[in-house]
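Fold this sequence, please.
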Amino acid sequence: MSRVAAGLWQNLVAVQVYGANTGVGKTVVSTLIGRHFTGRSGRTRWSVHYIKPVQTGPNEDADDRYVARYAGHSTSTLVKFPDPVSPHLAARGAAEIVSALLLLEAHARSLSMGRGSMGVTIVETAGGVLSPGPSGTPQADLFRPLRLPVILVGDNRLGGIASTISAYESLLIRGYDVDAIACFDSGKLGNSEYLEKHFKDMGIPLFELPLIPDVDGCSRQEEVGKMMSYYETESRNGTMYKLGKQILDCHIERLKDMKELASWTKKAIWHPFTQHKSIQKADEVLVFDSAYGDWFQTKHTQKSMENVKEKAASPMLYPTFDGSASWWTQGLGHGNPRLSMAAAYAAGRYGHIMFAGATHKPAISLAKRLLERMENPRLTKVFFTDNGSTGIEVGIKMALRAACKRYGWDGSTEQVGVLGLKGSYHGDTLGAMEASEPSVYNKKVDWYRGRGYWFEYPEVKMRKGRWVVEPPAGMEEEFGPAQYFQDLNEIFDYEARGHSARYEDYIERVLDALVRTQGKKFGALVMEPVLLGAGGMIFVDPLFQQSLVRVARRYQFGSTPSPVEDEQSWTGLPVVFDEVFTGLYRLGRFSAASFLQVDPDISVHAKLLTGGLLPLCTTLASNSIFEAFWGDEKSDALLHGHSYTAHPIGCHVANTSLDEMRVISRGYTWNNYRESWAGKKEKEQGELVQFVGKVMQRKKVLAWSMWSQDFVEKISNHNRVDSVVALGSVLAISLVDSSKSGYSSNAAAGLRDSMLNDLTDDKFAVHSRVLGNVLYLMASMTSRRNHLGTVERVLWAKLG
């Protein structure tokens, strides 16, 4: 979707006229509104402009000519088709939305030149709400980024009640604000009376307009005379004054919201991950009005407008790239209509359903999809929770019970910990915190104890244009010297790298010291595969993680283990993979475990599961884990659950989301990403994803990124950059930080603030998050290369 600002100005009232159907009188309503404001009494001088984005049919019947004749103000038509057919039959792309914004800005600019001027711009659509635009996209989807308030023209004909309500619901589900319904007198049909009551309950007024004069059989001169008289009389009547007041009141209310949201937030809201002492002014709170695709619509702040020319003509809301994928959840674009409709369908069919001892189709469909697509023969059961942190808690509960039962431990009286990786973090609930080492997130939490041991490991990063696997400082003896690779794919080439005896020896020595010498007990290995998210987007050497799993599964953690029943049963320790962040295509593959060629015993998935629309999490487990809770007493069961466990709305949206992402993962766009990151060896051997006709043949799955390889190499050479990580949708830049203050570092904060507050020449910003000295950016699964290229250019410019 094109990058455009939302249509909100201080002195320009912009409205969009949609019709419940074709032929309901949209152009007449547009003319009445325009003529009303040009003739409106009072001290304010009103300037009116009419925009018709798409016009079909002969030029002499064009709506802009009609409006100009009877309303007398300026008009514009952006795309014209001479034949009276649906515009999608002559596909042109979606340039009309950009052109509409430019015309709106031009009107705002003209108003800024004179004091006491106010403007109204009327944007009239073609056909009905879901009539296709020139690109084939329904107009309600095409123009949604502008988020103009709507005047919906109801249908006063037989069957018009249903079409009007349906049109309204189509707009509502896409996030439009319908300010009013306008409907011509329906006589004995009673459409207006019924619709007025229907919409009154929703707080939307209906304005009944007098019937359009019958001009059949009239000469051209008689027709013009009749219509002139109609517009002269009806544009000044009481109904039009009420409609005009409604339009203005809604505009003023929206401006008031934009003005007060930040101050009310500062007064009433306790934000997550925020030191409120650092927020000195309300203007420092970022205000969102809406979002679409990869973009937020955010309110201008005084600081953000400092470098913008013609401030008075600029919309109050500007597009801001969602550089954190909305805290790693957004996968299919904000306001995705397919997800919205899936949610509405499930809400209408089910509402809320409790899940204990019950079932429903969306949950079963989702469980089957996940178990099949994981391609992990160990996983057989799916447990539902609400978010990643609680899903991890469930996984830890499962693993600890299984280990304690097998080794004869009493976890209620004995200290049983977990194994993990330094810098890992698994969530903010108390139990999930216990599975992470002390950090800024948890060390001041009063109940936190930190039950476990967290291994050091080599990291993968690009530095000065070269990929390197680098041991922690001072640990070259344990891990060996830094290893350099030509490209990203070689790091995952385990056949070439071989099993690392050095890694395994180190892990076994540590375990011997912990288990045999110190007598510590461990009930699970918990880790994020490949990339540690909250810890700082740390790319762990996958060969080390593979080695850690291998050792954890063969090591003797208890004195009298029970016999293992089959090859899919866990051994050593249950292996828990936290794929809340890394899974479901975030790194370019359905499961991040596939990068390691390891099948975990428990796997946790959330965030992208619903494409960013609803909270939902699944914890998948093997049968041998499930059987640890098999018993005669209820207390033997996994007594965990939530009010919204497996809620059918979330499950149905997740099914839709996974199907959409699967199609994307097999498409040409992702194939192009893969090809652009293929190493020399793969290109020479043709081991890429190839298309034969319409059939995809995957010869070799590569490690790749949506971010440009040239840009990643270029930025890794910048003097302010220590290293870069790029994999799938993730780009993480570690800035040089002489203070070495880790998560508390402010090295990346200035870059983040500059990208957000200093608008580019074409008036957009980039929203990002930082983790200490690391600034990271994240694409969605639907991100376009040209959009990401634009963000790359902004990032490079702000680095200086």
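Residues 12-256 form a domain with the Rossmann fold fold (CATH 3.40.50.300). Confidence is low (pLDDT under 50) at residues 689-699.
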